[in-house]
Amino acid sequence: MPQLDPPAPAVVADQEPFWEPIGQLVFAFGHLEEQIEWCITLLLNADSAPKSPSVASQIRNICSRIALVEALYRQLTTDEQLRVALHNLIKELRVVFKFRNGVLHGPWGNYFKHSCTWQKPRTNPVDLSPYNFEVSVEVLQEHIQRAADIGNGLVKLILSVVEEHASRAPA
Fold first, then answer.
1. Cα→Cα distances 157→14, 15, 42, 163, Å
2. pLDDT the model gives residue 122
3. Which residues, listed in sequence order, are joined to residue 119 by a DSSP beta bridge?
């Protein structure tokens, strides 16, 4: 059996600039998930008195919760512009969650001093081919901001449709 050498330990000085932004990324996405949960509760209660506890809280998979937001939203509005606006936010949500998963799960590969980036090795689930993407502090910060912008946009959009729905409902 061939002898394998263990991976070389990472240099702490190369890692340290990433610690705070990764922590901020975790908190930003935690807040985004809280916003999604809030939207689900608001949408579920749009046609009736608030229920507790919500059955939706049992859906642990973020992709399923995002799909539930979209399905519930479509029940409240037939306005095509509003549906397209939500669909665009959902597409962005899926992209930022894919990035988050790539950053937080799996190994950190090579560090490139010239660009201050880490390589994240990944596997394409379709054909199982390997690929890499690079992560810099700036890219982490951009995704932190994107998560905040998407969450705020989602809340605003859901609120407007739920409020409009409530104003049309018989008293």
1. 41, 38, 12, 10
2. 87
3. 134
- Helices H, strands E: what count in the chain? 4, 3
In angstroms, what is the C-alpha Rg of the chain?
A: 20
Tell which residue, 153, 59, 58, 143, has the closest CA to residue 98.
143
Distance CA 84, CA 102 (A): 27
Q: Which long-range contacts (CB under 8 A, 24 or more apart) does 93-96 make?
A: 93/32, 93/36, 93/66, 93/150, 93/154, 94/63, 94/66, 96/29, 96/32, 96/143, 96/146, 96/147, 96/150
Which residues, 6+ apart, have CB-to-CB distance to 163 below 8 Å?
none
Tens of pLDDT along 73-128?
Answer: 999 998 999 999 999 999 999 999 999 999 999 888 888 889 999 999 888 889 99
Distances (CA, A) of 118 to 103, 115, 130, 136: 10, 9, 16, 7
Does 24-106+137-166 carry CATH code 3.40.50? no
Name the residue type at position 167: S
CA distance readout (Å), 15 to 41, 76, 94, 108: 39, 47, 27, 10
Determine the pLDDT at residue 166: 82
Domain positions in the chain are 24-106+137-166
Placement of tokens 């939500």 in the chain: 86
